Amino acid sequence: MDLSAINPAVLAASLMVAATPILLAAIGELVVEKSGVLNLGVEGMMITGAICGFAIAVETGSPVLGFLAAMLGGAALSLVFGFLTQVLMSNQVATGLALTLFGLGFSALIGQGYVGIKPPAMAKPDLGPLADIPVLGRILFSHDLIVYLSLGLVVAVWVFLRFTRPGLILRAVGENHDAAHALGYHVVRIRLAAIAFGGACAGLGGAYLSLIRVPQWTEGMTAGAGWIALAIVVFASWRAGRVLLGAYLFGGVAVLQLNLQAAGVAVPVELLSASPYLVTILVLVIMSADRGRAALNAPASLGRVFHASN
Amino acid sequence: MNRRTLLASAAFALGLAGAAAAQDKIKVGFVYVGPIGDGGWTYEHDKGRLAIEAQFGDAVETVYQESVPEGADAERVMTQMALSGADLIFATSFGYMDPVINVAQKFPNVKFEHATGYKRADNVSTYSARFYEGRAVQGLIAGRMTESNIIGYIGAYPIPEVIQGINAAYIHAKQVNPDVQFKIVWAYTWFDPAKEADAATALIEQGADVILQHTDSTAPQAAAERAGNVYTFGQASDMAEYAPKPRISSIIDNWSPYYIDRVQAVIDGTWESTDTWDGIGPGMVEIGEISEAVPAEVKAEAEALIAALASGEYHAFTGPLNRQDGTPWLAEGEVADDATLLGMNFYVEGLTAEVPK
After folding, report:
1. Where do the ABC transporter substrate-binding protein PnrA-like domain residues begin and end (chain B) (predicted)?
2. What is the model's pLDDT at position A208?
3. Which residue on chain B is closest to A20 by alpha carbon?
4. Do the domain assignments include residue B55?
């Protein structure tokens, strides 16, 4: 065993990178669920974002355009879900699952010409002397823009839901859509906006995988990250701060266990391999152990179909 | 004859032709563990499927299912294939072993071919390639190329096939570089690009400058390329898009000749349950081009090893070799028997990690 081979600063930096796709998808899904919509298509939107971003980045040579395209792609796909569930009032669970299947197949179709191509690299912002601070510089100031953007999004979503009037309206729609409707709010319109936001976030997360974290296009490359994001939203009891914690815990333990393996730690590898799931679930379950309060957080209209005539 | 009767008779003729063809057409099913676009393992199996189509044309119909999880789902997929009239089913991953046996019992008239497994029945054959021969070549090159003397190895699952590879690579790296050290990470997945990239990054951060992978995607290649001075090897497929660096050589699985043979056997009615395990010699394992990043003398050394393995004059597991705990395994000049290799669950002496139980 040689733990000295693991550099904590490098580890912390790579856990942030590993957690970012899940964090982005989860924070988007949090807003969607807060508006009372259960979109199980996160995986499909992520992978669609991954290929849209990859294709556009390769064609234009600009990763920034790629990320924009990924957000557009994810949002467009989520609006298909939005149209089906909000306008045609289809079942949200079934439609969400179908969205995942569709996204996986659709991305494989677009992606056929992009296997084995290398995407243009995204320039990292140069934070000058900040990045040279020992330890902290490596952890905090040596990342690409998307990592900072994802952290900013968490704060923005928290502020939006907690302190702003539109945030209150969105929550009202999620808690009781009939009451919100009676007050004159456009339930369907608000939900469609939330769904599109969630799709854009998932798309961005997917593109982070294909453009920065891996970086390449491979069919099925999200490999379940969307499902993890969905689970984290629930275990985080619909709170932005806990979503961040959950995503970083998952990403952190996932990276840590690989490092521990490489260092030859005498812990059964099966246990290490399962540890990201175990630790994340344990910590978040313990944190939301106060059942009364956790139940209050779940949007009361989650997954229910809204029709103005009800 | 007006247009309508013309169309009707054409449709009738087509229908007849279709019905006739359906009777003698051999239907071949493939079950894949990853997507065809993985650029590695499944991609090569699908090349085998395409080779069947090219060889037999209309006499054979092929169907396939991608990304089938190992376990109960595989049983469902194979049952579906058997019910829809498949005559021969190739199950192309180790974890399909028990599902294959279960489904084969239910469909005694359907023939099954299971890759890399060891359970057979009257209608179940197994086939595999001696990947460890390729691993020996990689180990030699890796031992010569490493400067940090740390070689990283990404394993999928601790099954004999993967452990053979680790041992073969280690033995031959050690022969040319006594200071070499292996760091092994188990991904517990055949295909998860993000995880494979993370595993490669973890190994590189801990000082590895050569990465061997036994997982199916090209993600570790991309991670190595980003890190700079790291060398890798293509796994299952050539992965030439990462040549000449980081990918400096590769193991290519060439299933086409075997697949064509087996389909021919079904057509001829001579198919029987067999166990095939071919290496570099018969061409089931190919070594991809050794790129210009490798010095000429190392390349020559590797090519000599390839030739010796191909002709059979040298076996990748030749004694004296001890097991990890120091007990003797093979005496001077003795070579490993296939039964031990197929059940290999131990490391050779010198490796520091433990085989996960």
Report:
1. 26-298
2. 94
3. B194
4. yes
- Residues in chain A whose beta carbon is closer than 8 A to a beta carbon of chain B? 5-7, 10-11, 14, 18, 21, 108, 111-112, 115-118, 209, 213-216, 218-225, 254-255, 258-259, 261-264, 266, 268-270, 273
- Reduced to 3 states (helix: H, G, I; strand: E, B; else coil), residue B288 is strand
Asked if B192 and A222 count as a contact pair (C-beta separation under 8 A), the reply is: no
Is the sign of the CA dihedral B332, B338, B339, B344 positive or negative? positive
Size of interface A-B (CB pairs under 8 A): 113
Same domain, yes or no: B245 and B259: no
DSSP strand pairing (B150-155 vs B181-186): parallel
The answer to whether B51 and B90 are in contact (CB under 8 A) is: no
Q: Rounded to whole angstroms, how far apart are CA atoms B234 and B250? A: 4
DSSP letter string, A165-229 = HHHHHHHHHHH-HHHHHHTT--HHHHHHHHHHHHHHHHHHHHHHIIIIIS-S--TTTTTTHHHHH
- Do B301 and B144 touch, CB atoms closer than 8 A? yes
Residue the block writes with tokens 């508006």: A35
Q: In angstroms, rounded to a whole number, what is the distance separating the alpha carbons of residues B139 and B169?
A: 4
Our CA-based measurement puts residue B151 at a distance from the nearest CA of chain A, in whole angstroms, of: 10
Selection from A7, A8, A12 nearest residue A140 by Cα: A12
Is B349 domain-assigned?
A: no
Nearest CA in chain B to A9: B205
Torsion of Cα atoms, B199 then A252 then A10 then B173, to 10°: -20
Dihedral sign of CA atoms B167, B173, B174, B176 in order: positive
Q: How confident is the model at residue A295 (pLDDT cuts 50, 70, 90)?
A: low
The DSSP code for B103 is H
Q: What is the CATH number of the domain that holds B266?
A: 3.40.50.2300
The residue behind tokens 């019905």 is B19
For residue B227, the number of C-alpha atoms closer than 13 Å in the C-beta half-sphere is 28
Within a domain: B2: no
- CB–CB of A146/A164 below 8 Å? no
**CA–CA dist B216, B218 (Å, integer):** 7
| B108-158 pLDDT, tens digit each | 999 999 998 889 999 999 999 999 999 999 999 999 999 999 999 999 999
- Could you tell me the residue range of the domain that residue B55 belongs to? 10-130+255-278
Residues 6+ apart with CB under 8 A from A162: none
What pLDDT score was predicted for residue B255?
A: 94
* CB contact set of A88 (below 8 Å; sequence gap of 6+): none
Instruction: Quote the pLDDT of residue A168.
Output: 95
Is B95 a domain residue?
A: yes
The stretch B307-317 carries a mean pLDDT of 93
> Residue A293 has what pLDDT?
63
Tell whether B55 and B189 lie within a shared domain.
no
What number is the ipTM of this complex? 0.80
Contact: A209, B194; criterion CB under 8 Å: yes
Domains and CATH numbers, chain A: 3-121+130-297 (1.10.3470)
With beta carbons under 8 A apart, name residues in chain B contacting A108: 35, 37
pLDDT in tens, B9-57: 444 444 444 444 445 789 999 999 988 877 788 999 999 999 999 999 9
